[in-house]
Each structure stands twice: as structure tokens, then as C-alpha cells.
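S.,

Sequence below, as promised.
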Amino acid sequence: MKALAKGGRLVTCGATTGSDAATDLRYVFNRELTVYGSFMAGMGELLEVVRLFSEGRLKPVVDSKYPLQEAAEAQKRMEGSRHFGKIVLTV
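The prediction came back faster than expected:
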């Protein structure tokens, strides 16, 4: 919230860290911010993303890779919010 300019917009999608979120509402009011929640796009948008991904125009952000045998360590990393991007388990 602090990084948004006056009149800025924040779009949030997903709640991978849980359902509770805390923010200082004074930033929302004083800077006249708008907060949008987004669940998912329609089928057309999904197909467009798949096309862009298959063309190599979109790249996933991978934080780390773990062999399946180290899934518990990967889980600890995720639960500790020590990652940025996806954590991949390899078989």
C-alpha cells in the first residue's frame, strides 16, 4: 500500500498465505487508493495465456527446485514465506 501513488490501484489475486490480511486503512483513505480482488479470468483469457506461454513469451518465476524426497523442506520454505515465485518439486 505504501508503494502506491495517490489514486493508485492494487489488484490482488489468490490468497496463498491465508485469508487474513492486515493493512493500515489510513493509506487507503489518504491516498484515495482502489483495491481490486480478482479470482480468475474467462476461458478466452486463459487460452491466450496458454498461447503466450507456449510461444515462450511468458516465463514462470521459479524460486527453487526440490526433489520429491525433500518435499518437507520445500513445505517449510513456503510456510516460512522465504520464497519469491514458485517452488517446484521434481520427480
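DSSP finds three helices and four strands in the chain.

Coffee later?
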